[in-house]
Amino acid sequence: MGFNAIVSLIIFVVVMALIISEKLNRTVAALSGASILIVMKLLSGEEALGYIDFNTLGVLIGMMIIVGIVKNTGVFEYLAILAAKKSKGDPWKILLSLCIITAVISAFLDNVTTVLLIAPMTFIITSKLDLDPIPFLIPEAIASNIGGTATLIGDPPNIMIGSKAGLDFMDFMVNLTPIIIVVFIATFAVLRFVYRNKFKVTEEQKNDIMKMDEKICIKNVPLLIKSLVVFALILVGFFLHSQFGYPSSVVALAGATLLLLASGENIDEAMHSIEWSTLFFFSGLFIMVGALQSAGLIDLLAKGILGFTGDNLLLTGIVIIWFSAIFSAFLDNIPFVATLIPLIVAMGQSGMNIAPLWWAVSLGACLGGNGTLIGASANVVIAGLSEKQGHKITFARYFKTGFPLMLLSVAISTIYLVIFYLR
User: Fold this and answer.
1) 345: helix, coil or strand?
2) pTM of the entire predicted model
3) CB neighbours of 28 closer than 8 A, spacing ≥ 6?
């Protein structure tokens, strides 16, 4: 490795250590690492900006503004109370309902958008039942990443794989959705055990929930109607944006602008709903991963994997899914997948049956995001929302739940691949 590679790696490891140890705020740590890289000229300012995924940031900003405006209608309170009443105030039934909703929506929408919609409902329900929201929020983040793995449009790595491998929506549904359902069931079964003593609610609290009238929560019907119309347009936009050649950020930002125009909401108030610290954390992280990519480390890792496994399909598939998962738990999976795709294509040109390897990459890269707090955008966003409500999700607290569940999901996926694809 050259000087740039060694220094970039050292800076990244130090920043990760600071984030994991909670010695420094994660946003400050990420921005500090990015700044050092630029000051040392390991990346130029232009190169650093080029590595920031402005599409992801645009989706975040647009959807945060929309959620901030929709919150003023009272619809989240309405849905939260309705869900709690349908579950008869039983915390486990509420959690299962919220996780199923999160997983299903994440299969068709960006995971970040999903958690931005679910989190406000969670805070309201847990407040009514006087429960800690974190045991709800962590499973919801995990469910969003599991659900996003199931379809072509559920997670960016799947979109990249589908584009390069010529796989369509139904290919992903047929090959990945069945195992994702199994992974979700297994995950919730473990969560039921892990959090078995976390949810203690009195009969009086349950009765109080059942007495609540969700209809009185709707505060602004005209704004709700406008919000629903705009949100429907955004959903259509998310489904069709690739056909029209627009990035998803354009859909989210255009939707936010349209809702601002239609609602007449104060722009300064709308800006307060944006989690700026989360956005800057992502920016710093993108730059640090970009430095590793620029130095050739990610390419070196990918080539090392395929060089080690040779033309053994079974070994290659197993190594790819596990390495992708571990890598994606700590680093952005997009540059890694982008590097791995052409190498897999080259293996196909040499005569290997590479079809199973696409599913190995997808399952590893997408499910791996559940491993740590920084492994997926949804995790970081939900942590930011939680901290704003006065409930801090530490790296260690998420890791204790997320990493074992990630290992379980990848183990189940590996068995699935070995039985049906890698023989």
Assistant:
1) helix
2) 0.80
3) none
